Amino acid sequence: MLPTALVDGSTTVIEEPVGPVATFTTWNYPLTVPGRKVAAALAAGCTVVIKSAEETPASAVALARALDDAGLPAGVVNMVFGDPVAISSALISSPLIRKVSFTGSLAVGRQLALAAAEEVKPIMLELGGHAPVIVFEDADLDELVAGAVGSKLHNTGQSCGSPIRFFVHSSIHDEFVARYAAALDAARVGSGLDPATEMGPLAGRRRFDAMKPLIDDAITKGATLAAGGTGDDSVGYYWRPTLLADVPDDADLMKVEPFGPIAVTTTFEDEEEVVARANDVEFGLAAYLFTASADRVLRLPRRLDVGMVTINRFGVGARDTFFGGRKKSGFGSEGGREAVEEYTVKKLVTQGL
Q: 282-333, pLDDT tens digit by residue?
């Protein structure tokens, strides 16, 4: 019940399930992404239709089977397979579907958003990222390098929150590059079935073929190859973790998400400059900040035009926190209380005395 200007009545806002939801999920986290969507929708009281990525259908099937084994009533979670264009068109245009949720590329997200707009249906979008890492001169380089290696190797860089653009203060840039390059060169790349492997292959030919043109463009424009830069597709789509130093702002890698094991560095001198350059991309998902200054820790997160900021560590959020971006990274949340709210609608009830 809410305070109201009415003198002869009361007002209450109630939340209700939005209704059946169509979810479209991506291949890079084939269980986590559908799991998050389904959990939030069910918590809100909605039924769900899952269209998983064509490359990784088995994980979503295992999720649906587990829910069925647990006793979830038939028809609450449903799965469809087939041509993605035909399926998305049929689901979004269906009068039964009341909400659309998509995780994937900007190009596909734009198409689904247009289709949802035609039907005047709400849509949640989690799209690409191009995360900046701002490293001030007082950063702990030991922790930074160790975290940067693990975060870059994670999922072979095929993650929307992967650190890509390292803006490093000029006074420590060369030392950081030397240490980071050595650590990346030492990483063991191989089969994911080998316990000693630290990074596996890329997901497929498309990602493998995208690496070299981005690297060549940066080198042509003046960057230095500090680590990696080569791939081997003889027994899989393996690419060495790659570091490019002194990458100019006009290089494609400063604007285009590589979605692979590539990191780039550039230098900066002052805060105003680095904030402007960090924000100068069309995406706004995640950003990382490394500094020992409590003043910067309080001020800078508010100046970074992203949905999530992580300070003095890598990784974004947790299972119970908001997860989402802004600008062309999309809108809405895949985590926390906000994720459940994505699948609800509000209703005002006014009652006379």
A: 999 999 999 999 999 999 999 999 999 999 999 998 888 999 999 999 999 9
- State how far the alpha carbon of 111 is from the alpha carbons of 102, 104, 114, 117, 201, in Å: 11, 11, 5, 10, 29
Report, as residue numbers or ranges, the catalytic residues: 126, 160
Give the Cβ contact number of residue 292 at 10 Å: 12
Q: What is the pLDDT of residues 175-202, one digit of tens each?
A: 999 999 999 999 999 999 999 999 999 9
CA–CA gap between residue 16 and residue 14 (Å, rounded): 7
Ordered structural domains, the chain, with CATH: 9-127+329-352 (3.40.605.10), 131-311 (3.40.309.10)
Other CB atoms within a 10 A radius of the CB of residue 73 amount to 9
Instruction: Note the helical H segments in 186-257.
Output: 205-220
58 exposed, middle or buried (CB, 10 Å; 0-12, 13-18, 19+)?
Answer: exposed
d(CA 165, CA 301): 17
Rounded to the nearest 10°, the torsion over CA 284, 288, 291, 295 is: 40
Return d(Cα 221, Cα 247) in angstroms, integer: 8
> For residue 262, what are its two tokens?
């590539």
Give the phi and the psi of residue 342 in degrees, each rounded to 5: -60, -25
On whether the CB atoms of residues 108 and 87 are closer than 8 A, the answer is no
